[in-house]
Amino acid sequence: MAIGWKAVVTACGLLAMTAPVADAADSLVAQWRFDEPSGQVALDDGPFALAGTLGKLPAPDPADPVRLDGGALRFDGNAVVQLPSTPALAVQHMTVEAVVRAPSSPGAYRYVISRGAQRCYSGAWGLYTGADGGMALYIFDGTRYYLSAAARVDDIWNGEWHHVTGTYDGSSLRLFIDGRQVGDDFRAPPQIDYSNTTDGAAIGQYAGNCRLGFQGDVDLVRISSDAKSQDQAIDESHHDGTLTPGEPVTPLQPAAPGTTLPGPPGSAKPTPSCAVTLSRTRIVVRQRTVVRAHVGLRKVILTVRSRGKGIARARTSKAGSARLTIRAPRTGTITVGVAGHATCSAARLQVVAH
Length: 354
What we know:
Elements: E1 8-9, E2 15-16, E3 28-32, E4 41-42, E5 52-54, E6 66-68, E7 72-76, E8 81-83, E9 94-101, E10 111-115, E11 125-128, E12 136-140, E13 144-147, E14 150-151, E15 162-168, E16 172-177, E17 180-181, E18 186-187, E19 201-203, E20 215-224, H1 230-240, E21 254-256, E22 259-262, E23 277-278, E24 282-284, E25 289-294, E26 301-306, E27 309-315, E28 321-326, E29 332-338, E30 347-352
Parallel strand pairs: 24-30
Antiparallel strand pairs: 1-2, 3-20, 4-5, 5-8, 6-7, 7-20, 8-19, 9-15, 9-20, 10-11, 10-19, 11-12, 12-13, 13-22, 14-21, 15-16, 16-17, 16-18, 23-25, 25-28, 26-27, 26-29, 29-30
């Protein structure tokens, strides 16, 4: 069975083509469909064109997954698709999806996709089989790992294709199998820590030095920068055929409820402080003024707010600096902070009359 908008194999062996779902296209970060008939590249049709490389070398090597008819990859536990090291995958709110198949559990802690690595402990986030060999999504907040409820082995590793959807909305982790929620929402911290993990990412393997390779087939991997709802998870599963229209969507009992695990030794220490510093401390009311700001975080958004309303914003460079053009509407104090990073201390500008 081929999945998604790819060829759907009928009983007569004929192929019918369907169109891709375009819901929430503006939140799409990356999407690897593995439709290429050959070669070492797994194309990404998302906005950042984050093409992956099959195997560990530019040329064919033993770490290449096998391409299957209809557009899918088969992983043997040693195979990998290496993804670019990029801040585009350092999302704060997220949906991670994969369409997967295996006749039995690939084993414990086997990765469908991972981003970053904290030595041999864990990454910034990962979609993996977890301790029970089923499926779970986890995130790392710099001190502890937070795991969603875990799917049972029999609900996902039974030789059939299944659409896995893991979501994180800044407060909760959720997991869906073919649109069915596994267990309950699990409370999670307000942000993912990317400062204490590497920038690497991989499909079919852990992005660090541990050998935690997936064994089975993968037909789609997709990352979005928002947390999809259950209705959206159901729609996707209807679209790719892992859930039949009209079929009851009943919750699934978890193999284990959501939980937290301690990070690696030393991870409980405070992360480096994050504070906005400015090139000046005073500006003149309603006068167009350029203020340079530095925060040390690359490609994040700095926002300027006056009495709760945004009046300017700019993205930091690779060096962590930004150029803000401000025209303050009134005298008093305005703040310059980092959007989405509550742990970063904001700076204050005094607005004075002429």
